């Protein structure tokens, strides 16, 4: 009898929605106004259901916490998004959007479609 644990699925195979990795050239970032100022929080990726982010600061973020965040597309333009932290590992967090039909989340879905189309256009060059 084997005492080994069952193999876990790869992260990509467990996803309920396609993730878009944010490239540094796009420089998307988040800010949490209620976290003692406008600390910059870096997004790792996002989907139509949520996002993953990390921070260099201890902002006291915990699993289950609801965040009213801003996702900045440039230094002056942002989308307000409400999400709930569903997992954490060190200073990296995963959060689900609380209102997937909110116009800001829909705008992010369109942005994801744009990134996908742009990548496809580049690969066909």
Summarize the structure in words.
This protein has two helices and seven strands. By secondary structure, it is an alpha+beta fold. A six-stranded antiparallel β-barrel has the order 2-3-4-7-6-5. The chain starts with 10 loop residues before the first helix and ends with a helix.
Short description:
The protein has 125 residues and is an alpha+beta fold.
**C-alpha geometry:** globular
How far is the N terminus from the C terminus?
A: 54 Å
Largest sheet: 6 strands, antiparallel, barrel
Order of strands in the sheet with the most strands? 2-3-4-7-6-5
List the topology elements.
Blueprint: H1 11-14, E1 20-21, E2 29-31, E3 40-46, E4 50-54, E5 66-72, E6 78-89, E7 92-97, H2 103-123
Notable traits:
6-stranded antiparallel β-barrel, alpha+beta, disordered N terminus, 2 helices, 125 residues
